[in-house]
Amino acid sequence: MKKLALALGGGGARGLAHIGFLRIIEKEKIPIARISGCSMGAMIGGAYSLYQNVDTVEEMSYRFIENPLFKEFNFDDFASMDEGGHDWKSKAVFVMSRIKVGLSLFKTLGNTSIYSEELVDKIYEQYPDHKMELLPIPFSAVASDLISGKEILLNKGSLRMAVKASSAIPGYLPPIKYRTRLLVDGGVTNLVPTQYFKASPHELIIGVDVSQPIKDFGDLDSGVNIMQRAETIRSYHLTQLKMHNAHKVVQCRMGDLSWAEFNKADEIIKSGEKAARRLLPWLRKNID
Question: How many CA atoms lie within 13 A of 134 on its CB side?
């Protein structure tokens, strides 16, 4: 039986879908040879590489989300900014969210990020630290170096540091100093890192993409919306190029759920389960 080489993509809260995807793979007893991850995909993938138990990973994820410190990130404001709505109440929430987000971004004029290094360090104390070389399932995380402009593969040393670097959203979370590098979110250079897996007759390379589909977008009636749309297009085309070696790319369908909607965790996780179930017929045909 062939094993899976899984590349778990980034996407903020949408990345919680990886929990559901892994649940079905685990339930079907399909062996995993190795995992690579970007951003939230690195967080989920790294924890699964250590624990090899999806329930443990899910419990850890909910501890993160429900931590009072995590709530200081005010992701609800970013989620509301992506929505809109047509009634007066929705519009009022939308406007207030944009004001709050605007004030938050104002902080970056004199700081490297909206949120402090101290806050991020306290939150990540909950994440397991382990030598990546000793993980039961080989794991790597992708990050982006602001100094050289290069994509950086992290597969040695501290698991916690690698996940923090891969998840450091530019401007929102502080970059991570690592040797001569200044590392930020892997999604800047590689959202679904399949290309680090070498072709093998014993493995199937699977990319799990949790980004918003290119065809899904709202009104292009403001500069902010246009900038977000342009970034989505750039990311989409870069991702397609990077995943050329994958045997299969799975898209987790969750509509227009925002990257910041951590309050929809249950719904997002179920979307990952559905994506894995859609993949099962193909897997059964190709895995032996």
Answer: 6
Q: The whole model's pTM is what?
A: 0.88
How distant is the alpha carbon of residue 42 from its chain centre?
7
Q: Give me the numbers of helices (H) and strands (E) for the chain, helices first please.
A: 10, 8
Q: Whats the size of the chain, residue-wise? A: 288
d(CA 86, CA 77) in angstroms, rounded, equals 17
Selection from 93, 116, 94 nearest residue 104 by Cα: 116
Integer Cα distance of 46 and 60 in angstroms: 12
* Residue 55, number of CB atoms within 10 A of its CB: 11
pLDDT at position 84 over 90: no
- At position 157, the amino acid (one-letter code) is G
What whole-number distance in Å separates Cα of residue 188 and Cα of residue 103? Answer: 24
Taking a C-beta distance cutoff of 8 angstroms, is the pair 191, 38 a contact? yes
Tell me how crowded residue 206 is: count the other CB atoms within 10 A of its CB.
25
Question: Distance between CA atoms of 217 and 232, rounded to whole angstroms?
Answer: 9
| Dist. CA 164–CA 2, nearest whole Å | 31
pLDDT confidence band for 110 (50 / 70 / 90): low
Q: Is the dihedral of CA 260, 124, 58, 134 positive or negative?
A: positive
Angle, vertex CA 177, rays to CA 176 and CA 180, nearest 5: 140
Nearest Cα residue to 208 out of 136, 146, 286, 274: 274
Distance of CA 208 to the CA centre of its chain: 10
With the CA atoms of 219, 220, 226 and 229 taken in that order, what torsion angle do they form, in degrees rounded to the nearest 10? Answer: 50
Beta pairing partners, 141: 37, 154
| Residues 17-40: tens digit of each pLDDT | 999 999 999 999 999 999 999 999
* Residue in the structure block whose two tokens are 């979307």: 271
